[in-house]
Fold this protein.
Amino acid sequence: MNAWPDFQRMLGMRARPALWLAGVLALLAPCTAQAAEPMVFVHNGMESPSDIRYTYHWQVLRAALEATVAEWGPYEMRPAPYMNETRQVAELQKPNGLLNTMVLDTTQELEEKLTPVRLPIDKGLLGYRVLLIRKNEQARFHSVQTLEQLRQFSIGQGADWSDTRILQQAGFKVVTGTAYEGLFGMLNHGRFDAFGRGAVEVQGEMTTFGRKYPNMAIEKNLLLYYPLPVYFWFGTDPAALERARRVEQGMRLIQANGTFDLLFKAEFNGLVQSLNLKGRRLFKIDNPLLPASSKDIDKRWLYEPTK
């Protein structure tokens, strides 16, 4: 149906140019809205079907994006092929890299290269570290009373993880592996004494890998802490900065309306009790990689499971 003659009659032949333009824009507006392109967020994929480390983080991202649809419009989330952390950082620095959204704990080096949304996704819980050990060696760890005694054990970590440098600078002997799943096998085969894991990770990993490595167990008494806030990260080009602004706005909205706390509690409330984090012997070490900008985080965004 041709609406143009009706439009001409509506305005009249002597219609002023401004009115004519307004009428044309009104007719075109529905087409423009329908053609709105989604803002695309491409994040790292799973290393394997067993890799569930970031399921919660993507739930938080989706909630933040949903909260901003009215202002920012539609969005799309999709995974890229799996990349290690070094590769993710490199891709994020490219305006058209293979991914444009990353989850990682902060370091001064990262903050000089990328754009963080400085709101801890897991309320700082990743910094509380428990140990995966071989089941028959619990007695060796039960006798640990001091940090110096804990340093006598070798700790397994990923080669490009910031934890490796944090632990090394705190005097620990760290044995590294290049593949996430391979570290569980290295523990099983005695390549190191313990595999340091975040309290947010360890129970899911026991469920996933416990059948394959039935001699693996969660150590029962010790808890190591170092500040390790985890953020969403973006590049520095204009489109990346827009994504970062949208996610920060969305994070603040879901924190204010209670959605963030609901997601956090649904994911982590049970682990504080089941891991007995309050009853463990707590050792604290510094994080020398922590930027000054992340040393005074608003307490509303933090959770202390030992209190």
About this structure: Confidence is low (pLDDT under 50) at residues 1-34. Residues 238-256 form the longest helix (19 residues).
